[in-house]
Amino acid sequence: MFVVPNFPMTAEVKDFEQPRVHAKLSSVYAGREAQGGKKQVNRDLDGLNDIFVDGDIGQLTIIGTEGKSLSEKIKCTGFLPRKSMFCEMFNHSIGLIPWKKHASHIFVSPIKTYEYAHAGLLFFPDCSTNFEG
Questions:
Q1: Which of 3, 22, 65, 82 has its CA 20 to 30 A from that of 95?
Q2: Any idea what the Cα angle at residue 101 is, between residues 38 and 76, rounded to 5°?
Q3: What residue spans of 36-94 are helical by DSSP H?
Q4: Side-chain-facing half-sphere of 132: CA atoms under 13 Å
Q5: Predicted confidence (pLDDT) at residue 133 exceeds the cutoff of 50
Q6: Torsion angle of C-alpha atoms 112, 114, 115, 120, degrees rounded to 10
Q7: Which range marks the domain in which residue 52 is found?
Q8: Which backbone phi and psi does 30 adopt, to 5 degrees?
């Protein structure tokens, strides 16, 4: 048995004001795929970019993914120190956890939803802890 601390450190979020309304809808995802083209079984971001490029649902910023922005609707910031990561998150409306359902999700990055909440974001996990089979 172990305890997973689910809150950011106070020093990382103490300067935030109340959540604010943004003029344009934008989402953020903090994370990245495995290096070297390998797929991680607990993360599958296939189709995420297409949703933003093809749809009319605002812009997406991906924190942690290196490289140039994938389109005018998708911006990649690369790695950011935690304080900068929270400041970038604060500039958006929605935090995404776009992983396909997998049994390990309760153990993988459990702090992500709390990071989003502390940055004033709504968040939408696309997975559940009710796993069958």
A1: 3
A2: 50
A3: 48-54, 82-89
A4: 0
A5: no
A6: 130
A7: 23-31+42-125
A8: -100, 110
